[in-house]
Amino acid sequence: MARNKDAESTCENWELTKDTLLLEEQEKRKAPKGAVLSLLTSSPQRAVVLLYVLLALGFVLFMALTIMNIRKVSAVWEALDQARLQGEKSHATAWHNLSEVQHALDKQLSGELQAIHSQLLNVSQEVENMQWKMAQCRAECGKELSDRIRVLEGRDALEPALQQLEELKQEQSRTSALLSAVLEEARNLSEILCTRCPAGWQQFAKTCYFFSTDMKPWMEAKASCAELGGQLAIVNTEQENKFVANHIMETRVFWLGLSDMHKEGDWQWLDGRSLSLEFWKSGEPNNVGHQGEDCATVSSSGLWNDATCSSAEAWVCERSC
Questions:
Q1: Of 89, 118, 155, 168, which is most buried, counting CB atoms within 10 Å of its CB?
Q2: pTM of the entire structure?
Q3: Which of 201, 306, 281, 189 is nearest to 243 (CA)?
Q4: Residue pLDDT, tens place only, 40-67
């Protein structure tokens, strides 16, 4: 009986142990499922946090790139401003130097022209002296010749007297030819050199030019030139056009004596002559605008443009020396 009791207690203990092991195994099986669930529930939060971190890093990188670009653009603008200022300074310096050179040339030419004018006056005075001496010589020679003829008439040796008379006539002819040549040279020199341009006028070849400082419509500019004893400039050669352009400031244009008022497209100078040479700007004349463009201007580049005659512009006159 005792052995049966021990066997039953042993069986009961074994069953309890077995149940305990089964419970522990079930708990162990449940534990991984809970860990997975906690991991699954915590992963979206970590992803959101990671996303915010990446967005923050992207924003910081974007701001850094933006600041760098702004600094580069600022540096480029500063360089452009410095280049523009330097260009304006160089331009002003060039105009100042050009004005000084032109002033020096005008002064030098004025001195040379005054010297030539003095020489011409001396030559004219010498020519007048020679003319007076020739007239006096003719009178004295004529008187001497008459006296010799009268003396020779009273002599029988008439042939030698006639020979002397012929020699005197030849000498007189040579003197007259020499005087005529001197007078012709003086006249040619006076025609070549222009020494009578009024004050404020510029000389080119045998013509004087006046460049206005005020601005007027074309008809008023034409009248002003007439009051000054000239007319609006007429360009006959390429050299004359370059001379006019060289006396024009870069930002201005000047009226010429050229228009097509009488007939559109038929451009004529004030003296009635049609164009024999022309220096129109590309695309000109184009006669744009409601009022049309019937009067010509010239710029510092030497190119012409048609403009409205009622516009106020500077003007250039010309007159003979």
A1: 168
A2: 0.45
A3: 201
A4: 445 788 888 889 899 999 999 999 999 9
Nearest C-alpha neighbor of 163 from the set 150, 176, 174, 148: 148
**Which of 150, 166, 192 is the last residue in one of the domains?**
192
* Domain stops at, among 165, 192, 219: 192
Q: Which residues of the chain have pLDDT under 70?
A: 1-42, 110, 113, 117-118, 121, 123-124, 127, 137-139, 141-142, 145-146, 148-158, 161, 182-183, 185-195
Region of residue 287 (left: phi > 0; alpha: psi -120 to 50; beta: else): left
Residue 281's domain comprises 202-320
The answer to whether residue 93 is domain-embedded is no
Residue 86: per-residue pLDDT: 86
For position 33, what pLDDT does the model report?
Answer: 45
**Predicted pLDDT of residue 36:** 39
DSSP string, 157-179: -HHHHHHHHHHHHHHHHHHHHHH
Nearest to 232 by CA among 255, 214, 252, 253: 255
Q: At 211, which CATH number?
A: 3.10.100.10
Distance in angstroms (rounded) separating the CA atoms of residues 100 and 106: 10
Task: Report d(CA 71, CA 78) in Å as an integer.
Answer: 11
What is the SS3 assignment for 51?
helix
User: Hunting for tokens 């025609």 — which residue is that?
Assistant: 191
DSSP state of 231: E
User: Do the beta carbons of residue 260 and residue 267 sit within 8 Å?
Assistant: yes
Tell me the residue type at 139: A
Give the number of domains in the chain: 2
Give dist(CA 235, CA 209) in Å, integer. Answer: 12
Q: Distance between CA 15 and CA 152 in Å, rounded? A: 198
- Give the N- to C-terminal CA distance of the chain in Å, as an integer: 168
Reference 102, options 196, 211, 263; nearest CA is 211
The answer to whether residues 308 and 293 touch, using CB atoms and an 8 Å cutoff, is yes
127 and 172 housed in the same domain: yes
150 is a domain residue: yes
Distance CA 107, CA 111 (A): 6
